[in-house]
Amino acid sequence: MLTLQEIERLKSEEVRKAIEDNIERDPAAVALDSRIPEARLVATEVKYLQRARHKLPRLYQARCIIPPRAFEQSSSEECARRKDISGCRLLDLTCGLGIDTIAFAEHFASVVALERDEALAEVVRYNLTLLGIDNVEVVTTAAEEYVMDTDERFDWVFADPDRRSDKGNKMVCLEDCSPNIAMLLPHLQRISRRIGLKLSPLFDVDEAFRLFRGAEVEVVSLGGECKEVNIYTGSEHERLTIAAIGLGTWHFCREDMHATATAEPFTPEEYRYLLIPDVALQKGRVAIAALKPYADIWSNNGYAFARELPPEHVGARIYAIESIERYHPRELKRRYKGVGIEILKRDTPLGIEVLRKALGARPGRERTIALTNIAGESWFIELKS
Hints:
Elements: H1 4-11, H2 13-21, H3 27-31, H4 39-55, H5 57-61, H6 68-73, H7 77-81, E1 87-92, H8 99-104, E2 108-114, H9 118-131, E3 136-139, H10 143-149, E4 156-159, H11 181-191, E5 194-199, H12 206-211, E6 216-222, E7 225-232, E8 241-246, E9 250-254, E10 273-277, H13 279-283, H14 287-291, E11 296-297, E12 304-306, E13 316-326, H15 329-336, E14 340-346, H16 352-359, E15 362-363, E16 367-374, E17 377-383
Parallel strand pairs: 1-2, 1-4, 2-3, 4-5, 6-8, 14-15, 14-16
Antiparallel strand pairs: 5-7, 6-7, 8-9, 10-12, 10-13, 11-12, 13-17, 16-17
Helix pairs in contact: 2-4
């Protein structure tokens, strides 16, 4: 983490000009350039500004200070902007680099953001000035202390708990994160009716049933990767709403995670398209519910098979099917030996390297094949290129 002294040097006109003059250069070359004042500091900032160009475009454009560790742990601006909460006052318990805080500032009259690290809090204050944001107060304190002592009221409280232990291990359970939201919950409910939580992509959505009543859970993906699991408590009803969202492309919402899988026998000759459910649908346990109107699907983690071409934005990758047959490796080896193949698999314990070896194939993209298990039988699908 940057020190307060380093932050002050990064604020100086001389260093800011050096960063601007070298923004497109190789950071390694910048660090070795003796003509540049504070070359090491400038090189690090250039490196992380370059990395922030797409993830944090507003911070990049304003040439904000971006501490390396805070950058790695931050949301993208795209994920932060899509959180659909608003009101008069919001309390952000875990400011960090302030990406969520900056997004909330557009939808609340005022935001109080807590950051226990004095240096990071100073970075956020400076960045807010560069961005022209004047309705955020950054308070250097621990969330637990602030929540216990305050008698203020907020429309929303938001938290993105630290999911790393003192030894750097990833924590998944809410009770193990910092601050411990499960322990603080009664105090949070005293100061706000509605609470928003951003949790690990590894968080099991079934845990939401154990922890909350009347909550909205959303699983957000981008480019096929799960980015966030968010919980919003304090809704009017006592049922749990599950939403799966592909940023910028599709959205599926359901008030019940449970849906009936296809019961009919698998009839491969009827199907023309293979659908691979997006990770957000799988994580939210809603792949069956989302894809059943367009295809037959036997499990939330499996493939769906369609007779007709589904709409483009259904929350799944769509492949045209060349052929479907039972998986008999000896017979298939005659066809695929020495061929470069890409292997997709779902609902099967067989590993990709085991499959490739059994077929005598090599890594490549000459053919794309998929393997899955339905009703106790293994099926081999070749996909059209």
